[in-house]
Amino acid sequence: VLELGELIRTKQITSQELTDIFLQRLKR
Questions:
Q1: CA distance linking residue 21 with residue 13, whole number of Å
Q2: Radius of gyration (Cα) for the chain, nearest Å?
Q3: What is the DSSP string of 2-27?
Q4: Domain extent at residue 16
Q5: DSSP assignment, residue 28?
Q6: Considering its fold, how many domains does the chain have in total?
Q7: Start-to-end Cα distance in the chain
Q8: How many whole angstroms separate alpha carbon 26 and alpha carbon 20?
Q9: Source organism's superkingdom (predicted)?
Q10: How many whole angstroms separate alpha carbon 22 and alpha carbon 17?
């Protein structure tokens, strides 16, 4: 979670990418 927060702060990840990652984790 911390790493994702850092990426968002630095704008290295978009909201869509974050959502995709979140959904992928839920599927596991």
A1: 10
A2: 9
A3: HHHHHHHHTT-S-HHHHHHHHHHHHH
A4: 1-28
A5: -
A6: 1
A7: 16
A8: 10
A9: Eukaryota
A10: 9
